[in-house]
Write a structure and sequence with these properties.
Blueprint lengths: L2 H10 L13 H22 L4 H20 L4 H24 L4 H42 L3 H18 L4 E7 L5 E7 L8 H4 L2 H8 L7 E5 L5 E7 L23 E6 L4 E4 L6 E4 L6 H14 L3 E6 L8 H8 L15 E3 L2 H21 L1 H7 L12 E6 L2 H6 L3 H16 L5 E7 L4 H4 L2 H6 L2 E5 L9 H4 L16 E6 L2 E7 L5 H11 L8 H7 L1 H4 L8 H16 L35 H14 L44 H7 L4 H11 L6 H8 L3 H14 L3 E3 L6 E3 L5
Parallel strand pairs: 7-11, 7-12, 8-9, 8-10, 10-11
Antiparallel strand pairs: 1-2, 2-4, 3-4, 5-6, 5-14, 12-13, 13-14, 15-16
Length: about 725
Amino acid sequence: MSASTATTKKQDTSGPVLDWAAGHGPVTGALSATTGAFALATTGAATGMPPGWALAIGAAGAIGHTAAGLLRRNAGRTVATRAASWLVGAGWTTWAMTTGPLTWAALGSLATIGVGMGAAARTANLYEEAREDEALAAAEQQVAAELSAERRGIAAEWVDRVQRVCGITLRVLAVEMWPTGTGFTIDAELPAGGATYDRITKESASLSADAGLPHGCTATAGPGINQGRVLIDVATANVLSQNRTYPTEYGPLSIHTGLPWGYRTNAEEICAFLREQCALVVGPTGSGKTNMVHVILAGLARAVDVLTWVIDLNAGSAGLPWVRPALDPHDNPQGTLRPGVDWLASTVEEAMLMLAAAERIAKERKMAYQDLMSQANTDLLPVSPAIPQIMLVVDEGAEILASTDKPMRKLAAKLIEVIRIARAMGVRTVLTALGATGTVLGNLMIRREAKIRVALTGGETEGMDLSKQFPGSRGLRVDQAPYKGSGFMATPESPVALFKTWGILPNQIRDIVVATSDRHPTLDDISARAAGPAYASRWDPARTAWIRTRSNTATAKIRTEPPRPTNTTGSGGDGQGLNLSALRTGSPAGPGDEDATVRAFMEQIDARFGTTAEPAAADPSTPPPPAQDRSAPRGTGLNLSALRNSDDDGPGGAEGEAAAGPPWLPEAVDAIESAGAMGMKPSAIADMVGKDRKTVRAALRAAAERGQLVYRDNGPHSVYVHPDHA
């Protein structure tokens, strides 16, 4: 038997344990006072102590307790009882020391004094409790009395409104104004007869219209403190119409405390708890889904116990901004900056390697960490910075699950397997989709595991069946969230309601990568061994050449390209461009006004290129020059497009500009070439060049007709591919 077991057994058999730190009650207090007085009287009589000392001690105790009672604001009855107990006890002790404490008279009087002390103490305690109850009741009455006229008006107004619209008579208990000043909450009691808050929830739109709330403001009902109560949140200011950037406080977060994804209509943050839950984010093009993905990645990057793996088969565009600062030698010359995501896959092959590693990690953790889970008395792996959770963020992952392409089907099967087996072992998934349709939500595993659901509407109605994404919820309308980045969000902790995510700027992404670089955990040894070489070599130059080549080429082009002249039209300013008199405004300068340097320069051009003289002013007597034969070869002189006829088909005319395409097209072609055989979607190109999708599609279609690009039609996955990779 161990020492601790023996000690425990000894304590169990030694009887009840006394709490010496506890205060005295009426009985123990009286017993303590009488025994103390008897002991003092006996000792004093035996040693010849002066009796006046006991009286002095009693007087001091009475004065001290009186002062303490006054500071605590005790009742006068309580103060008098305690002071009298001290004086009576001191008086008996003085008398007993004089006459002898061991007589029957002394003992009987002491017992009588003890009983009196106990009764008086009990009475005083009851009186104090009654005073406290009265004080609490008075405070509650004061709070009720201080309910402002505005709140009473709100309560009466909404009682009438709910009765009129929903047919329910409420009893309002409180009206709480939101600290942000954007609305209020009504705490009401439902009537008897089985009425539930759902009856009010169904009429949310009607209540909002009846109240004349601004667009983007709703009146939503939720459960109260019990099933007979209801909380009605009424937003009076349209917070969703405001554009707010991601908070610049990049402090540490944890997967256990939640990651902020946006804010509700009352301006309070809403967090996603992803330790056990997967998430599904739905949003059509133009709704702010890409920005939402970056907000999610920002929260994961700030977490101290999360490693983020990103799958984006659209050239890895979702994860590139989080990787490039670390891989760019100009931004990371020392090589100490870590990427904002731990792994990025842009191809089906790389994604298969990633999901296979995640599956092996989950299975290995189940076997290797049994003792740790037993010590923690849980069936969930204790996630911490030492054993981080792996979050798989799959952009347009729902479309992967619905694809009929054979490689995609294999990838989808692997993704479903990871979702199915890895919950307890700390591997969870965030999927995005273009629409809340039956094709996307038809997978049972997604519906069951994705308890955190987001629908970014942006006013889009096509493919936004909110009843499928939020089953059982009524009163949700797309036109309630017409702003980019706004929509509906539901979590197991909070019902579906309006929300909006922050706008995150590109420079903020780089700042977050720098601020959180030393905060990212490293994969535990057991998981790293299970992941194998595919994980260990994920940032090798050979596997990241598609990132490094594209990034370095673009950076070098920006840094080495000389500045363009600011005045190429010859408008007579101080620019460095050619002074083309054909485009000058105002009266033409005479030959005598030309600067000698300009004349010398023009003579050099004439000698070098064989240009002709400027055409003379029109003279009615001068016959027009003969028409130029377009079939004849052009001269080798300087081609001044400003002097050509408008119907000229040369490379500088209107048709030449159409053939060359818009100025951003070469950059787009380079990006498509860097994407390889996967190509790029028009939406990704539009986001890259900052143009609307209609303009980008038209330019890409024209480039495909000229042979610069190849269009690969694959439904929602249609892409443009460079001819070298087609």
